[in-house]
Amino acid sequence: MNTGTGEYVQLELLKENDRPYDWSGGGRHVNASKKLGAALWEKGSGYTRNDKLVYGYYLFNSPPGDEPLRQSFREIGGSLELRPTAVGKSVGNLNRGGFLLETEKVGRVKFYRLNSRAAYDGPSGQQRRATEHARHPVTTCPPEKKEEETS
Q1: How far apart are CA 111 and CA 41, in angstroms?
Q2: What is the pTM of this model?
Q3: DSSP alpha helices (H): ranges in the chain?
């Protein structure tokens, strides 16, 4: 405001060719449940630091819709500076908890996708349809089931 005249003055913060929002990075958005995400990151949730790191990786790198993230644990581990076995253990925890769902198996390799109840990359109408049959994630990490020994 011009204090002498009381007139409002437009402040020019952008240069002539600047755009207020640059969506050159793709502009995709993920609808994520803040409640479930906060519960996953809660100190007493039972999910490890690696689990949270792997979940974040899936959240930001998964393809749109119900498509699985088609990357090996070695590739994911390389990006997160984790061993493939650590990635596999975290994916197992997140799968038992329902945050990641197994969707494909190619040979012995399993691929996982985000549970659409926790996060979805796509239109809200598709997310509503995708959640109709999706299980509810468990915010306390379920323990790993030990295989019973046969005698």
Answers
A1: 23
A2: 0.77
A3: 34-41, 49-61, 73-80, 84-97, 124-131
Q: In this structure, what token pair is assigned to residue 73?
A: 């644990």
Instruction: Region of 120 please: left (phi>0), alpha (psi -120 to 50) or beta.
Output: beta
Q: Does the pLDDT at position 66 exceed 70?
A: yes
Q: What is the mean pLDDT of the chain?
A: 85
The single-letter DSSP state of residue 103 is E
Integer Rg of the chain from CA: 21
DSSP assignment letter at 65: T
Q: What does residue 113 show for φ and ψ, rounded to 5 degrees?
A: -130, 165
> What DSSP assignment string belongs to 4-39?
TT--------S-TT--SS--TT-----EE-HHHHHH
Which residue carries 């061993």 as its tokens?
Answer: 83
